[in-house]
Amino acid sequence: MPTTRLPSAFAELEPFAEKWCLPTEAERWNMRMATSMLVMREFYEAFSPRLEEAIDYCDKFPLADVPDDALNLLHLIYSMVMVSMAVEVFGQQKPTDSADAVIDRIGEPVP
Fold first, then answer.
1. Phi, psi of 54 (to 5 degrees)
2. Residue 81 Cα to chain centre, angstroms
3. What three-state secondary structure class fits 28?
4. Which of helix, strand or coil describes residue 60?
């Protein structure tokens, strides 16, 4: 039986969970860079209609005590933000006119 990562109310997004429930910004960025635009658009189109509902769901929990399934949903939201820039703004994985610029964070907000 497959493992579920997301709250049952978001079961239709489960096919995206393994790829996009990533806990760090660096992991999300690397996944964006390694994923085709076609695959990112599929994720974007599936999640966009449910994004506000997902945010509302996660907002029910204090950040210090988020259940695992809601934390995975929060990570999915963060990935959606990362993917949406590629889909809505750049039309490609890499930001336009960025040459080989890289930013490595040494810390980030958690969760």
1. -65, -40
2. 6
3. helix
4. coil
104: confidence class by pLDDT, cuts 50, 70, 90 = low
35 vs 26, more confident: 35
pTM here is 0.86
Q: Which residues of 17-41 are buried (b: 16+ CB within 10 A; e: fewer)?
A: beebbbeebebbbebbeebeeeebe
CA 77 from chain center: how many Å? 5
Query: In this predicted structure, what is the pLDDT of residue 92?
Result: 87
Q: Integer distance in angstroms from the first to the last C-alpha of the chain?
A: 28
Phi, psi at 59, each rounded to 5°: -65, -15
**Token code pair at residue 71:** 């934390």
**């860079």: which residue's tokens?**
33
Cis peptide before 111 (omega within 30 of 0): yes
- Do 40 and 25 touch, CB atoms closer than 8 A? no
pLDDT 10s digits, 66-85:
999 999 999 999 999 999 99
